[in-house]
Design brief:
By secondary structure, the protein is of the alpha+beta class. 30% of the residues lie in helices and 36% in strands. The chain is built from three helices and five strands. Strand 2 and strand 3 (82-87) form a beta hairpin. The protein is rod-shaped. The N and C termini lie far apart (80 Å).
Length: 128
């Protein structure tokens, strides 16, 4: 009787070990799932400070109107929005007028940093 109980115990232990072992195919599926995160949406320029003034940056966000000024809100859906006051010439002002409330990409030179969440940029190019 002891021998049968011992054999059953060994059989249960073997089945438990076999069920816990994952195949390489399952491991590859897990690795592929973990690497499919889109980090491009996570970018925030809140780290920019006075040492970055004069550097060129590409920003993506929503254009809004604030009185006579245009502001680009980076990550408008987030609680950690970064606002860029846009310094534009007359031609760019007319172009931005038609892009209010649209998602755009702007290239420009950082001109001032008031805080991690408020900055100014001299616009060099706008694209939708």
């Amino acid at each position: 009787m002891k021998r049968i109980n011992f054999c059953v115990l060994i059989l249960i232990a073997a089945l438990l070990l076999i069920s816990c072992v994952s195949t390489p195919k399952e491991q590859n599926q897990v690795a592929q799932t973990q690497t499919s995160v889109n980090y491009a949406r996570i970018i925030s320029h809140s780290y920019l400070d006075e040492s970055n003034i004069g550097e060129v940056f590409n920003l993506r966000g929503k254009i809004i109107r604030n009185g006579e000024n245009f502001v680009l809100i980076e990550r408008p859906e987030s609680r950690s929005q970064v606002s860029f006051l846009l310094e534009v010439d007359k031609k760019q002002k007319a172009e931005l007028e038609s892009l209010v409330n649209a998602q755009v990409e702007i290239s420009g030179v950082l001109t001032s940093v008031a805080s991690p969440w408020k900055k100014s940029i001299k616009v060099t190019a706008v694209s939708k």
